[in-house]
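Continuing the batch. This is chain 6 of the set; chains 1 through 5 are on the previous pages. Same settings as before, nothing changed between runs. Recording input and output for traceability.
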Amino acid sequence: MSRISRIEIWQVNLPPKVPRSDAIQSFVTQETPMLRVTCDDGAQGTGYTYTIGTGGSSVVALLADHLAPRLLGREADDIEAIWKDLFFHTHATAVGAITALALAAVDTALWDLRCRRLGLPLWKLAGGAQPRVPVYSTEGGWLQLPVETLVAESVAAKQAGFRGVKIKVGKPHVSEDVARLRAVREAVGPGFEIMVDANQAFTVGEAIRRARHYEPLDLAWFEEPLPAEDLGGHVRLAASTSLPVAVGESIYSLQHFREYLQREACSIVQADVARIGGITPWLKTAHLAESFNLPICPHFLMELHVSLCAAVPNAAWVEYIPQLDGITTSRIAIQDGYAIPPDAPGIGIDWDWPAIERSAVARHDIRI
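Output for chain 6:
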């Protein structure tokens, strides 16, 4: 029996590779809390989580002060029991972003340790459903880009082999969004997917109006049209448009997804492994979506999501936004427009530990 004897925690801040702005915010920096678990037999596993500019130090404090001490002495393979224990230990702050993000760092570390101990890649251990997943790019679709750049980036993505692009929407008037989207559609042709993302910017009435104008452009989905807490608004929108409505990056519990699916408020599930609380609840969410005959197309974190998408049968897309290159030696493999999950044991990420140590803005070491 292998028990946890040491927890190490870092925070590394990573600048975005390109300027990233959407309808409500700018991606200033990726605050990246990391957690490494070491057992008394020497086995190790590493997990991580993220924010896009605020709250990283709060996640680190929750890990160091409240969650990590409860891991010491625990059997590392009791992943489900540990997740539940930590969730109820933080019940006064759950369900919510900071708690979910902290739980994700722990949970991914435990899954990494289990995979390494068994000599299996995550995508095989968690299901092994498909050897490759289509990939689309978001890196050339940010809202601040002029239409000429938007078109050029979309054409370049198509030429590079991507099977789709995501374009941010939310310009002051719907006509501006339509002009940008129409220019991209004309440039890439009808056989290339275009996703649009409003980042929760609209009221219900405005979302319904914009969806009506977007429909002739044959879009793959309309992402985060409304605030995530507005379940009723999503029900109204989904019933009023032929566009698939996508939600999930700002949903922090399996139960909240259940409510969306039961009320037919979306048709694309975009659970984010960090924001849902880790691999354990992500897999439950993916299978919940499968039970409703819906695809899961996760948000961000491609380095981890490629393995999770390959693990389940209903994953339809991986989102390409590279962000970990500064602290990893591995890179996501893409062939003919498909992301290929890594075959090495673990969650599929090779960490550059010297770079992490050099870049860390916070560090904690907690031992028995």
